[in-house]
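Predict the assembly for these two chains.
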Amino acid sequence: MFKKFQPSTDIAGQTPVKSSVQRSIRSAVLEQWKIEPETLEAVWPKKEGLVHVKCREHISIYTVRGEPIFFQHFDGPIYPTLRLLHKYPYVLPMVRVDRGAIRFLLAGAHMMCPGFTSKGGYLPPADEALPAGAPVAIHAEGKEHAVGVGITKLATEDIKKVNKGVGVEITTHIGDDLWAIKAL
Amino acid sequence: MPAKKNRDKSDKVPAAEPAPVASEEAEGPPPPEPKPPVQVLYCGVCTFPVEYCEFGEHITRCKEWLQEKDIDVYNKYYSEEALQAKIGTLSLEAQTKLEKDTAKKEAKAEAKADAALKKKLASQITIKRIERNKRKHVTAIHGLEAFGIDLKKAAKQFASKFATGASVTKNPQGQEEIVVQGDVSDEVLEMIEGEVGLLKGIPADNVEIVEEKKKKGGD
C-alpha cells in the first residue's frame, strides 16, 4: 500500500476531523482493536484533534500532533501504524512468519501461506481463528517486534488447509514509505 | 513485553526473548491507568528496530552505531552465541545465501549513496535574472533542493530578507524553483557564500548567475 508514497505528490490535503466523526472513529477503533479506552486515550487524547490526511487511492492517514497513528483504506478496517504497533503490540492479533520470509516481506511482498505453516511460523489456534479480511500484526521468527501490518486474505484455518498462495496481504512494513514518514 | 493471550501461546524461540527495553505489565483486571507503551530501540542509522538491522542496507554502520550506543544490546544481537543461535534456525545454505544477499545489498546502497553525494557536489545552482519590464526584474533561483534545502522555507527567508514577494513555482521544465521579486541576484549570491540561515553547505563555485532578457521582435 505504501510501497511508493511521496508526501509531496500523494497527499491531497489535510483537514481536522469533526468531533462527531472523531467519536465514531474512536468507537470503531475500540471495537476493532484489543485496546482499553485508557490506553487509547494516552495515544490519542480527547483534547487533541485528529487530523485526516487524505491520500491518493482512497487512503486516509490519521495523525495526532502531526504524528501518523492510524490509516485506513476506503471504508476498510483501521490499521495502526507500525510505530504505534511497536508500542502497543497487543492491539492486533498476531501471526508470525518464518525467518526465510522476512527478506521478502521487507521488500514488500505479500506473505504466502507456507511461511505461516512452517516451523518458524505461527497462526492462532482453531478456537481463535481469524476470518478473512482481518487486520493482523505480522511478527517474524526470532524477532521481538512486529515487522509489518497486514490483512488476512484467507481465514487462518484455510491458510492451514490450503497452504498455497497469498495468505496475508501486507499493508505496511518496516522500511516502506509510510515508515519513513515520522511526522506530517 | 506485554503479557497477552495470543503472545503467551506462541512458541517463542528462547534466543529472542524480550530485550531489556520491554516494559513490565501486570495481568489481571484491566487497570484504570493506561498501559505503558513498550519502548523500542530504533537504529540511528537505518531507523529499523535494532533487531531488523541485519536486513537493512547499512548493517556494518548499524553495528558500529549500536556498539557505541548500547553495548549490552549489541552483545545480545551480534555476539558469537547469538549468531550461532540464529544459524541454528536456518539451513546453512539459506544462511550463506542470505549473507551474500546482505553484502550485495550493502555494497549497492553504498554505491548509491556515493553516487548521490557526487551528484550533489556536481549539481549547479542557477540564479537567473529575468526581465519583466524594462526596469523590473524577478530573480529565479534553481537547484537549491539538491542540497537538501526546503524550498518553501528558503522562499520565506528570501521574502523576509528582501521584503519582497518570494514563491516556489514550477518552471516550464516542471522543476521547482524559487522566484523572488526584484533584482536580488547579487544579494542571493552573497547569502549563499555567507551561508545565511538555511542556505548551508553549498559550494560557491557551483553557483552561476545568468541573465534572461525579454525577447524582442527584430532585436
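The longest strand of chain A covers residues 166-173. The longest helix of chain A spans residues 19-32.
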